[in-house]
Amino acid sequence: MMRLSRSTILINLGRVGEGWDEYEARLDPNFADVTVFRTGRPAWKPGADLAGKSLLLFGEQGLGDEILFANTLPDILDRLGPDGRLSLAVEARLVPLFQRSFPQARVGAHHTGKIEGRTHRIAPFLDGELGSIDLWAPLASLLCEFRRTPEDFPDRTAFLSADPDRVADWKARLAREAPAGPKIGLLWKSAIISSGRHRYFSPFERWAPVLATPGVSFVNLQYGDCAAEIEQARREFGVEIWNPPGIDLKQDLDDVAALSSALDLVIGFSNATLNIAAACGAPTWLISAPGAWTCLGTDRYPWYPQVRLFRPSAFREWEPVMAEIAAELAKFAG
User: Count of domains in the chain?
Assistant: First the structure.
């Protein structure tokens, strides 16, 4: 755990390559929260020749992390070349989106369970075929070779592809059913609430100046139970956050990608949906806590070059940054 903490400190200092090297401590069998990837095949190491090889990659950690760390997949496909084969084991809800985005790959759902208190992850869609895999790796390990500096992150607006027919359908529905004005998707919380994580998200009350922006149509992208916040916006701020019908924002992630791509702008904190929107190339404003290591020691968000970053000067000082977003949103609407 100390090595993992050190890795994120190094990354936050801009010593990104060193940080990723130390980030491999998450795979050390002495780490209490280690995930054991069961393949029986050799592990990929930086510098390995991938041309013509069969490579299995596992999504790891949370849903948003699986998307974030997929940043390197276009590079991997280039290295494998026309004779190589890529297999991707991702969270089941991501399979349709990843399969469309990487049609050259074979994409299936991973399965995770506990054995003697340890987390184990497998790729059951490859049962009986693992012997043909040359190398395997968890997605984040690829950063050790492909993203050693912030400048190594390509100026690539999108690496995931929403369904174009569903995008067109959502655009039509938004124009027909949602209130008039630019369509602004909102995200304000995470499904994971802990004392450590909670400080990265503002209380909903702090959104008041943003919600007061005239001439825009706010669209709910927040998964989970958010009825209380939507009612609070209506009651206290006089704002209707339009709830898109016919979509489960937690489960229908392929449709969430299409809805996000149909919006004029997505604003929110870093959760799974914001990562989907940004990875699909949607115009996105990210509200990030100061010192978030995923900024890689920069004043931008290298993972998604089109993302505009807003950060308070100190933890819990949300009022100034929300006022800034409100002012910028008024310009955007104008």
Answer: 2
